[in-house]
């Protein structure tokens, strides 16, 4: 503990000090690495990666964690080992010259050795001790110590000495890896697990349906919590990477940012803004419904927004996709040239599911995209059972969501009943599900697009007709009438019909207007003549009245005159 | 005999003066005096003093007797208590028979 306390300051006091292996994923499932200052047994069959595992432990220790290491090989010569791992970027010779590691090849040749009487393995101890002290090693690998069993006859001495060796390694406070070949009915051929009880890791190489999968399991690890599942691991150009099968919690960050689908009319169905960033979208439909086109337009839009994207193609080659998408006005080549888009095309049957998942992980970690698409996930079913595919996709979605990557899957559904699940059963995992369905009527097939679900937003519940044109994709409102949903040419003829109707209606309205006008004119002329009539009657009446007045006046005048005349006469 | 002129170069690897080492050395000296008089050189290497020498001769067990000359190289591990095995290992028995 005292020896390691300086480097393990980040672990809570009292917990087991650990030495990180630097192997991707393994340090997560072991919560920090292998137990410091204790031996760990790595066992497994031939070719399962024990030696590579050990070399990575030593090389990472030397390069990343400042812990020099001794690699004692009982199987392969140091030069052979160095040659084997140079392709992974580990220059063991240079590390040896830098006094960061020490390789020691222990050769045991039965034909040269004669045994008489008592002996012990002090020679090995001294050799190892000398190697450790000469570079101040903190890590030791013994690969494969079991070869001693075939080299030495006296098993009882050997067993006692091995026990002493492991105790001695503990005393030396070095973190050790001891590898062992898998035996019948037990972890190792010679029962090494009896001596090493702190940490045992089992590597396995399993073949199912002619597809091999490498698996790692922590059989035991005293004094600490650890993952107990079988974890698939991958050996590739960069060494070993282990993939935790399930993320422990569902605690992703979420965001309300939106990502456009690349089809403006589809965005309109999604509150006018598109999908949530970091969500998972499933596009399913029967063959030839344009799933790939939707995926490509999604990617195209993301790249136009200067986002990085990966297109995982399981069916077509990148050039094929680029060519086909050009025909609908989507130029993906420019994004590839700009370095924004990366194609990753592989046949699903190339590797097992777990390997696919791992390579996707690596690819995503390397390229760091904001948008990825898988086209189509249906083909994965050829390399695994439904539940395996589902578990893989679940982990994939978890992984992508934890990195806030928006993902679009396409899936081929084999039935035409819309409410059925897709074959992969991922529809419950995804956040949004777009379904493209063929609608067959009047001797033609048209595409209807629905948004089956879209978590966390008020999406349109309507069916749209999905049209692929030379300029791209768009959605058209379908005609919903008494005859049901009309699409394609039926919709167009219905629209024409409606147009005719409008013209006819306009015509009718116009005619009515004219009639009213005419009626108005008739009425108005009638009113005018009546008015004339009234005026003449009024004139007549007025004339009589004036005459009366005049007569009255004249009579009055006359009477006055007569009165005056009479007075004058008197 | 062709072996007549040869000198047995023997190296005994030990780690300190343990009981096994002492036994081995005394056994070896006895056999050599008996069968290889004046035809042998014994070099005792204490790995506690010179640990770097363990790698060169591929030493694992202690004590180990290494016969470098005459060829072939042979190793005999243990306290050398079985005289016959040691002599066979050192290729001595046939040489003695011809004398």
UniProtKB/TrEMBL annotation, chain A:
InterPro entries: Circadian_clock_KaiC-rel (IPR051347), KaiC (IPR030665), KaiC-like_dom (IPR014774), KaiC_dom (IPR010624), P-loop_NTPase (IPR027417). Its EC number is 2.7.11.1. Residues 1-23 are annotated as: Disordered. PROSITE patterns: KAIC. Signal peptide: none annotated. It comes from the Bacteria. Residues 17-256, 257-489 form the KaiC domain. Keywords: Coiled coil, Hydrolase, Kinase, Phosphoprotein, Repeat, Transferase. SUPFAM superfamilies: P-loop containing nucleoside triphosphate hydrolases. One of its GO terms (molecular function) is protein serine/threonine kinase activity. Residues 513-565 form a coiled coil. NCBIfam families: PRK09302.1. This is non-specific serine/threonine protein kinase. It comes from Larkinella rosea.
TrEMBL record, chain B:
Residues 11-92 form the KaiB domain. Pfam families: KaiB. It comes from the Bacteria. Signal peptide: none annotated. One of its GO terms (biological process) is rhythmic process. This is Circadian clock protein KaiB. It comes from Larkinella rosea.
